[in-house]
Amino acid sequence: MPAETTTLLRLPAVLERTGVKRTTLFNLIQRDLFPAPVRIRNTRIRAWPSTAVDAWIHNQINGD
Questions:
Q1: Do residues 34 and 17 touch, judged by C-beta distance below 8 A?
Q2: Spatial distance between the Cα atoms of 47 and 8, rounded to a whole number of angstroms
Q3: Distance separating alpha carbons of residues 41 and 31, to the nearest angstrom
Q4: Whether the Cβ atoms of residue 48 and residue 35 lie closer than 8 Å to each other
Q5: Is 28 exposed, middle or buried (0-12, 13-18, 19+ CB in 10 A)?
Q6: Residues with Cβ < 8 Å from 15, sequence gap 6 or more?
Q7: Which is more confident, 35 or 4?
Q8: C-alpha to C-alpha distance for 57 and 45, rounded to whole angstroms
Q9: Among positive and negative, which fits the CA dihedral 48, 54, 55, 59?
Q10: Number of H helices and number of E strands within the chain?
Q11: What is the pLDDT of residues 6-40, one digit of tens each?
Q12: SS3 of the chain: helix, strand, coil, percent, to 5
């Protein structure tokens, strides 16, 4: 099985992937129920590692 590749996901991709609305996502982050975005060095850009988003989705499905 090939190693999982981590990509950085911008907000629209995270919202699409999780199926939650923007306000809900940021409420979950504020309550430490969803991973916070990381800052891309030397920019104002923030994104989420795909592995963190996938782990959150897996946890929601399986209740781990």
A1: no
A2: 6
A3: 25
A4: yes
A5: middle
A6: 21, 22, 25
A7: 35
A8: 23
A9: positive
A10: 3, 3
A11: 999 999 999 999 999 999 999 999 999 999 999 99
A12: 45, 10, 40
> What tokens does 33 get?
């129920």
Tokens representing residue 10 in the block: 């911008």
Q: Which residues, at least 6 apart from 55, have a Cβ–Cβ distance to it below 8 Å?
A: 35
Detail the DSSP E strand segments found in 1-64: 8-9, 38-39, 46-49
Provide the residue count of the chain.
Answer: 64
Confidence of residue 4 (pLDDT cuts 50, 70, 90): confident
> Which residue in the block uniquely carries the two structure tokens 């975005």?
37
Token pair for 18: 């999780």
